[in-house]
Amino acid sequence: MRCTVRGVRVDGVTEDYRILNRANWDERASLHAASPDYRVARFAAEPDFLSPVVRFDLPLLGDVRGLRGVHLQCHIGTDTISLARLGARMTGLDFSPASLAQARELAERTGSDVDFVEADVYEAVSVLGSERFDLVFTGIGALCWLPSIERWAQTVAGLLRPGGRLFLREGHPMLGAIDESVTDGLTLGYPYFETPEPMVFSDDSTYVETDGRLGQTTIHEWNHGLGEVVSALLANGLTLTGLTEHRSVPWNALPGRMTRDEHDEWRLIEHPERVPLSYTLQARKS
User: Fold this and answer.
1) Which of 158, 164, 167 is nearest to 285 (CA)?
2) Which of 21, 113, 213, 231 is deepest in the core (most CB within 10 A)?
3) What is the pLDDT of residues 7-63, one digit of tens each?
4) In what order do the strands lie in the sheet with 248-249?
5) How far apart are CA 277 and CA 266, in angstroms?
6) Where does the record place the Methyltransferase type domain (predicted)?
7) How far, in Å, CA of 78 to CA of 50, rounded?
8) Does residue 239 contact residue 65 with C-beta atoms inside 8 Å?
9) Which run of H or E residues covers position 118?
């Protein structure tokens, strides 16, 4: 999953965030599977093809052959299948049944031995079992859909075996705090830190090229400060082993101010040194 390019901000909370966000992601699933940006046809045609997200991760990800891994918030499974192609024994978990239907279809088309499980991320330990995994992978644009980074860290710790590893690449909370509707500068318009109430937005578009529009438009998001993420993991028995900030992100997060680079990533056209756009965090369970 990835955070949306935000639309109109809406006041108030009308429903449980999971109901609203799940309805939105169920509609995105078929649009994303048909989008050229997800490259589903290349997965089917090229047995060694990897998603651009996982290709970017490779220098820090290293060798995952033989590891039992779980990909939390796996969406339509392109990153999950990419990790399986690198030799990991993968399980993908997501709360959207429509997304998992697309993931299972892609796994069948590609002959990938991947299990896909429907569950909310906070229920992952009870559904999958505790201390079963060598690797927890959380791809970019996932944490913004979760209200509590502490509960997420508890989930990661519960899934990992002793010595197991977390690999997280995520949109930077500085990017999450920027108001993309202000186009003549980088303006902070949203919280950097986690807040009790969500940011509520309404938007009928998504972050990749599609031919359709969304009918379920209301979404709830939260930002999580970098220190909050690190502190939650440390408090739950993980040791930080790596933290790298990047000047790029895989989607056009600030339309009109970004350009696509040779790695299929988006960078600021002007002054890319002024703000981090994403980060990679690695940690190990003691």
Assistant:
1) 164
2) 21
3) 444 455 456 999 999 999 999 888 888 888 888 999 999 999 999 999 999 999 999
4) 248-249, 266-268, 258-260
5) 9
6) 71-166
7) 8
8) no
9) strand 115-118
Quote the mean pLDDT of the chain: 92
How many Cβ atoms sit within 10 Å of the Cβ of residue 54? 21
* Per-residue pLDDT, 203: 80
Note whether 251 and 28 are within 8 A (CB). Answer: no
Tally the domains of the chain. Answer: 1
Helices and strands of the chain, counted as H and E runs: 9, 13
Token pair recorded at residue 69: 């891994």
Scan for tokens 């965030």, then name that residue: 17
Residue 2 included in any domain? no
Report the relative pairing of strands 278-285 and 238-246 from DSSP bridges.
antiparallel
Range of the domain at 45: 8-285
Tokens representing 282?
């690695």
Q: Which amino acid is at 224?
A: H
Q: What is the CA radius of gyration of the chain?
A: 18
pTM above 0.85, yes or no: yes
- Average of per-residue pLDDT across 71-75: 98
Query: Which domain CATH number covers 43?
Result: 3.40.50.150
The whole-angstrom separation of Cα 253 and Cα 92 is 25
Q: Which helix (H) or strand (E) holds 31?
A: helix 17-34
Distances (CA, A) of 260 to 113, 186, 251, 267, 279: 33, 19, 9, 6, 18
Tokens (6 digits) for 147: 């209200």
